[in-house]
Amino acid sequence: MPVVEFLTDDEASAYGRYGEVPSRADLERVFFLDDEDRELVERRRGEHMKLGFSLQLVTVRWVGAFLEDPLEVPTAVLDFVAEQLGIADPSCVKKYTERTKTRFDHQWEIRRVYGLKEFGTVEADLRAWVEARSWTTGDGPKAIFLDAVS
Predict the structure, then answer these.
(1) Closest Cα to residue 76, out of 30, 22, 18?
(2) How far is CA 82 from the centre of its chain?
(3) Taking a C-beta distance cutoff of 8 angstroms, is the pair 103, 49 a contact?
């Protein structure tokens, strides 16, 4: 079966990462830490742990995936989250990645608490959804891909 390219190079390279800096409206809508989020964050010791955990949480909401480097976020995101947590020096987050296992432990906890699943466990369901969607709508591959990512 031939490979069909439907994403531009820019779209493909932006997948699974921050493509652009979120707008203020997006920050307030997606990156806002509600009471449930704050309860989880407050279980961490140290400002760097609270901030790093929070960045992973808001990133997976926005991007749909955890980043290889959880600190590879736009400065506007870092500052917005730090402000909510009352952290005066957001640069303290650099200490978050000193222990490699921490980010994976936090990803596991975020998946568990928010009901997120690893792609491999739902791939068959996604394939069935894409197939059904392609037969029942007039949407092209790009629209189906973007809806699937959402």
Answers:
(1) 22
(2) 17
(3) no
Q: Write the CA distances from 75 to 2, 71, 78, 113, integer angstroms.
A: 41, 10, 5, 27
3-state class (DSSP) for residue 22: coil
Burial 46-62 (b: 16+ CB within 10 A, else e): ebbbbbbbbbbbbbbbb
CA distance 145 to 132: 13
- 91, 105 contact by CB (below 8 A): no
* pLDDT, tens digit, 9 for 90 and up, residues 18-72: 888 999 999 999 999 999 999 999 999 999 999 999 999 999 999 888 999 999 9
CA-nearest of 23, 31, 20 to 54 is 31
Give the DSSP letter string of 21-85: PPPHHHHHHHS---HHHHHHHTTS-SHHHHHHHHHHHHHHHHHSS--SSTT---HHHHHHHHHHH
> Which pTM was predicted?
0.78
CB of 59 closer than 8 Å to CB of 80: no
Token pair of 132, please? 């059904």
Q: Select from 15, 27, 42 the least CA-distant residue to 78.
A: 27
What token pair was written down for 76?
A: 């506007």
d(CA 17, CA 97): 18
